[in-house]
Amino acid sequence: MNISQTDREDFRNLLMEIHRTHMPFGMFGKEKYPPHGVPIFDLPEEYLLWFKQRTFPKGRLGELMAHVCEIKECGMDSIFEPMRKANGGRTKLS
Fold first, then answer.
1. Whole-prediction pTM value?
2. Residue ranges per structural domain of the chain
3. Angle CA(26)–CA(94)–CA(22) in degrees, nearest 5?
4. Per residue in 5-31, pLDDT tens?
């Protein structure tokens, strides 16, 4: 399979959007993890799977969470390592 430059650019843009997105509510939201909440790429896979079973939030947040869930389910969590390094490491979850 030949991956086109457009596909690579789309994936790169998706990863940049994931990098900028934080969980705005709930147990990993900004109230418990100020000031922005947990970056969605650092959400536990179990938490994402819980949403997958019920329904991801509506809108772009839900779409991005679904992408992160799929990436983690495929065992590709390491793709987020450059983002973690840029943020100073993996978010410590309590």
1. 0.91
2. 5-86
3. 45
4. 769 899 999 999 999 999 999 999 999
